Amino acid sequence: MPTRKPLDLNLLRVFMVVYRTRSFTQAAQELDLTQSSVSNAISRFRAWVGESLFNRVGRGIEPTSVAREMYRKFEQPMADIETVLLGFEHFDPTSSQRRFYVYANESVIEALQSGVQALLQNADIEVIFRESPPQEDELYRDILLERVAVAIDIKPAQQSLLSSKLLFTETLVCIVSLQHPRIQGVISHEQYFEEKHVFLNLRRFNLTAGDLFTEGVLPRRKMYSEQSSLLSMFATVGKSEAIGIAPLRYASQYAEMFGLQILPMPLKTRPIDLYMVWSSKYTQNPSHQWLRRLLLNASANTVNKKALNLASS
Q1: Beta carbons of 64 and 53 less than 8 angstroms apart
Q2: Do 23 and 138 lie in a common domain?
């Protein structure tokens, strides 16, 4: 009886990435291969397994029950192997040349960028901030595809392949035009829900920012408009009778420019905890550890003791 050839473990790696991305094209990008090479690897792996692994569904692919079971069993062992291997990388911030991309929203970029650049003096390393996508699925996908090294987000990681750590904390406030005819100096609970709101185009788990950071289930708010950035929200609120919510530090910087009142929230809210989120396989990687320490140090002027204590644990 002929002996079965040993499995080429490269085929298993291709399978894992195709399963996760549900796309030969995205898998090819992540693996730095051609799409035909990925397709050929999956065909060879299917022949070795002896079972169908993926079905075409519309323009995409869906894993079979066999593929789902294989991925479930291999996910953690493969992640552990990558973590061990990546931990051996040599990295010296005084001599290494690297470029890191970091996702963050505009208020976080404004808070961290100057501090990061100051810490990078005399180093041949770039840290480039990019605006975060509004949906968490895209944000998580880009981390796993290694399009960004770290994302700074309003929620900790929600996937097994991702890790997270608190970076710093903000306070939520209500913003209202200085010329508002009904609200001056204070806003009541009733007024908050009677007035129209300017929403920020940010969703996590199908919840708006306002719903994420308030206690309990809120009545439906009346929408005046939805804006893609905090600055456009500030401009809209300053020129209308609509109200909005924003981080205290960022709103304070622009209140005079846009003619805004900054008022305490008239309902119970949670702090805005901002987390570094990264691919778990890079947790022990020297360059990624250095990047996360850099971001923590750059946030020293805006963090609270809670974030510092957790980050050093």
Answers
A1: yes
A2: no
Position 203 in a domain: yes
pLDDT tens sequence across 214-245: 776 777 889 999 988 899 999 999 999 999 99
Domain with 206, as residue range(s), is: 172-263
Whole-number Å distance between alpha carbons of 283 and 274: 18
Find the helix packing angle between 106-119 and 248-258, rounded to 10°. 110
Q: Which tokens belong to 195?
A: 């007035």
Alpha helices in 165-269 (DSSP H): 189-194, 209-212, 230-238, 248-258
Query: What does the pLDDT read at residue 310?
Result: 40
Distance of alpha carbon 285 from its chain centroid, rounded?
19
Asked whether 134 and 203 are in contact (CB, 8 A), the reply is yes
Question: How many angstroms separate the Cα of 1 from the Cα of each of 4, 6, 159, 306?
Answer: 9, 15, 44, 65
CATH number of the domain at 296, please.
3.40.190.10
- DSSP codes of every residue in 108-151: HHHHHHHHHHHHTTT--EEEEEEEPPSBHHHHHHHHHTTS-SEE
User: For a pLDDT cut of 90, what percent of the chain falls above it?
Assistant: 53
